[in-house]
Design brief:
There is one protein chain. The chain is 15% helix and 39% strand. The protein is of the alpha+beta class. It has 2 domains: 78 residues, Elongation Factor Tu (Ef-tu), domain 3 (Beta Barrel), CATH 2.40.30.20; 91 residues, Beta Barrel (Elongation Factor Tu (Ef-tu), domain 3), CATH 2.40.30. It has a 6-stranded antiparallel beta barrel with strand order 1-2-5-4-3-6. The protein starts with 7 loop residues before the first strand and ends with a helix. Keywords: Repeat, Riboflavin biosynthesis, Transferase. Homotrimer.
Length: 218
């Protein structure tokens, strides 16, 4: 479990490919202070497992499915990445519930400076938009952000100077791909209301949007 509050920007040290999978090594500092083998670290919003580490570098294995579903496959030596350790049970919770399981990718279609903020409009599929709401939370390359604009196939976020400086999103331009994770709570609620993806022995819910509206809950 993560919060979407980026701890540091790491640098890809090397990539060793073995068929459809590969091993990535990353230069870092802060996330290595208390690292252990098997720890989870979010890399651009993707939860990956530490397989080895030294004083200034750690490595992770990336499976084919992760390459297909995220922008990890586009990384090269020297690429910058957002890093966050898994949340400590006794730590402060500064962002929102983030699983590190990316729902899909988006493409930045507009970057605009407005006074001290920078607006990013990101194009995504309708399946991702359906999991978003105005002023709701979204994770972009592992960074917890708030949605303040929404259309049929895009959403808009606003970055303050601190976020521009402390995450890799500030370096992104129009045409760049980003990893997207929709709000975890919203996904579970939407799944329950739709009654989709039912497992064996489960029944479709009778709780509907109309029921909620009729009873004053929506």
């Amino acid at each position: 479990m993560f919060t979407g509050i980026i701890e540091e920007i790491g640098t890809i040290a090397g990539i060793r490919r073995t068929g459809p999978m590969f091993e990535v090594s990353i230069h870092a500092e802060k996330v290595l202070k208390d690292v252990n083998l098997g720890d989870s670290i979010s890399i651009n919003g993707v939860c990956l497992t530490v397989t080895s580490f030294t004083a200034g570098k750690f490595s992770v294995d990336v499976m084919p499915e992760t390459v297909k579903a995220t922008n990890i496959g586009a990384l090269q030596p020297g690429s910058k990445v957002n890093l966050e350790r898994a949340m400590a049970a006794g730590g402060r919770f500064g962002g929102h519930f983030v699983s590190g399981h990316v729902d899909g990718t988006g493409i930045i279609v507009r970057k605009e400076r407005v006074e001290n903020a920078v607006y990013y409009e990101i194009e995504v599929g309708e399946d991702l938009v359906s999991g978003m709401i105005m002023k709701g939370s979204v994770t972009v390359d592992g960074t917890s952000l708030t949605i303040f604009g929404l259309s049929e196939n895009t959403f808009t976020i606003s970055l303050i100077p601190h976020t521009m400086e402390e995450t890799i999103i500030g370096q992104k331009q129009s045409g760049d791909m980003v990893n997207i994770e929709c709000d975890m709570i919203g996904k579970y609620v939407g799944h329950y209301l739709r009654g989709t993806g039912l497992g064996q022995g489960q029944k479709k819910t009778s709780l509907t949007k109309s029921f909620l509206e009729d009873n004053g809950f929506a």
